[in-house]
Amino acid sequence: MFKMKRLLVGKKMRLVTMTLMSAGLLTSVKAQTDDVLSLDLDKAIEIALSENPTVKVADKEIEKKKYAKKGSYAALFPQVDFGADYNRTIKKQVMYMDFDMGGAEIPGVDASSMKDGMEVGRDNNWNFGFTAGMPLVNAALWKSLSISGLDVELAVEQARSSKIDMVNLVRKSYYSVLLANDSYRVFKESYDNAMENYTDIKKKYDQGLVAEYDLIRADVSVRNVEPNMLQAENSLVLAKWQLKALMGMDLEQEIACEGVLADFKSELFDDFVATDTALVDNTNLRQFDIQGRQLGAKLQMEKFDYLPTLSLSGLYQWTSMNNDFKFGDYKWNPYSMVGVKLTIPVFSGGAKQNKIKQTRVSLAQLSYQRDDLERSLKLSIKQSMDNMSTCVKRFDAAQKGVMQAEKGYSIAQKRYDTGAGTLLELNDSELALTQSKLNFNQAIYDYMVAKSELDKVLGKQMAK
User: Fold this and answer.
1) CA–CA separation, 41 vs 179, rounded Å?
2) How many CA atoms lie within 13 A of 345 on its CB side?
3) Residue 201's closest CA among 222, 228, 226?
4) Rounded to whole angstroms, how far apart are CA atoms 454 and 220?
5) If we measure between CA atoms, which residue out of 356, 375, 366 comes closest to residue 292?
6) pLDDT of res. 183
7) How far is C-alpha 116 from the chain's CA centre?
8) Which of 36, 17, 60 is nearest to 252 (CA)?
9) 3-state secondary structure string, 274-340?
10) What's phi and psi for 317, nearest 5 deg?
11) How many helices (H) and strands (E) does the chain have?
12) In angstroms, rounded to a whole number, what is the distance separating the alpha carbons of residues 444 and 275?
């Protein structure tokens, strides 16, 4: 009796434990579902532009260049410094004096001793004070300020280039997630169809209505489709990881990309032939143009090195010379000076002229590189337009193919059910339907990728 009670208590405890575990599991599943971040394309781009490290680095570069520009203006203002120094005399300087007083004597001075010289100075020499200086006329300095402004402009354009590249990568990654998801859905439908056919044929086989070969063939069809479905599922996981990495998100964060590729099919019928393909907004060409202006300003600045410069300087210092370290007895003598310095370049060994020639060569190189880049960009535009045109034709053919394949599969299914058709016909129609759906999704994906590449070349950052 006691043993029976223990068994009953044990069963109740196990039941309670299983109930609690089930409740915990349901809570965990619900929490994971609540943690899934739902994304559309615009939201994915927004997160990437705010969280991706590459974009953040580009923004910091702009900030750095702005500080550098402000720092360059400091050269126009007076530069004031405070300095102090101490010198210990090891061997005093000897001074000689030649003078003729017409036979007269100097009181307290032995004229014969002056022939051997006299030591001057003291052991300890102290000096501290302020120095100041500022340019009054310096054409090269003034021109360098405009170069600092162009550095900021170039940094801004480089940041824009980073954002355009990021938008392009996020778009293509988002489309890859949708393609992987749609492919998984197609293979899942194919698997479900194959499984349904296998179940139906298994029943007919058990009833002796079909041959064993049909049952084996149906089982093989299920096993052939299953690896494709698993591979598509794995591709979906990898595509999501890539998208999360681009967005600068935690890779463990679950995301769900909204929509399907078919949502973008309306864009295939846009009049892309009328698209403005001018390269005025291309970021690479803009950077070349800014670099050209920088080199032009540098060339002008190097020419200004031939011009005279005028600067103002001044100082106010205190000096003291003593033979001991009794600071309270020191006598500090002030010394001040203000001056103007004019510098006229005369000869520099050809350094200035060679610098000018180097800059001119750099300008020529930049011009050739820009022309070559422009030709490459025009070729890229032509390829993107051709790809988009081909994708439209592929989409039209694939769309009609899906309609026909669905109709063919339906007919094959009915023919097999009535005994008029064979399992081979049914399998062929199923394979054709799967392939036509994959072609349909692939055509849309290829079009959207080509369009994204075209927008990148044209410098369209946020265009869809």
Assistant:
1) 14
2) 17
3) 222
4) 44
5) 366
6) 92
7) 77
8) 36
9) HCCCCCCCCHHHHHHHHHHHHHHHHHHHHHHCCCCEEEEEEEEEEEEEECCCCHHHCCCEEEEEEEE
10) -135, 160
11) 8, 8
12) 19
As a residue count, the chain comes to 464
Beta bridge partners of 336: 316
Superfamily of domain 37-76+138-307+345-458: Outer membrane efflux proteins (OEP) (1.20.1600.10)
Model pLDDT, residue 271: 63
Go through 31-47 and write b for each residue having 16 or more CB atoms within 10 A of its CB, e for each that does not: eeeeeeeebebeebbeb
Distance of CA 295 to the CA centre of its chain: 26
Residue closest to 135 by CA, chosen among 126, 144, 122: 144
For the chain, the domains span 37-76+138-307+345-458
Q: Which residues pair with 124 in a beta bridge?
A: 88, 322
Closest CA to 450 of 272, 293, 309: 272
Contact 283, 153 (CB under 8 A): no
Q: Residue 40 gets which letter from DSSP?
A: -
| Helix H or strand E encompassing 81 | strand 79-88
**CA-based torsion, 348, 349, 351, 354: positive or negative:** positive
Tokens representing 171 are: 């778009």
User: How high is the pLDDT of residue 108?
Assistant: 57
The span from the CA of 257 to the CA of 44, in Å, is 9
Burial class (CB in 10 A: 0-12, 13-18, 19+), 425: middle
Per-residue pLDDT of the chain (464 residues; tens, 9 = 90+): 434 444 333 444 444 444 444 444 334 434 444 588 888 898 999 888 888 888 888 888 888 888 888 888 888 889 999 999 999 999 888 887 765 555 555 565 555 555 677 788 888 999 999 999 999 888 888 888 888 888 899 999 999 999 999 999 999 999 999 999 999 999 888 888 888 888 888 888 888 877 888 888 888 888 888 888 889 899 999 999 999 998 888 888 898 899 899 888 888 877 666 677 888 889 999 999 999 999 999 999 989 989 999 999 999 999 999 988 888 888 999 999 999 999 998 888 888 899 999 999 999 999 999 999 999 999 999 998 999 989 999 999 999 999 998 898 888 888 877 777 777 888 888 888 889 999 999 999 999 999 999 999 998 865 44
Extract the tokens encoding 294: 């920088």
Q: Which of 395, 388, 397, 396 is nearest to 448 (CA)?
A: 388
Angle at which helices 139-206 and 53-73 pack, to 10 degrees?
170
Q: Which helix (H) or strand (E) holds 322?
A: strand 309-322
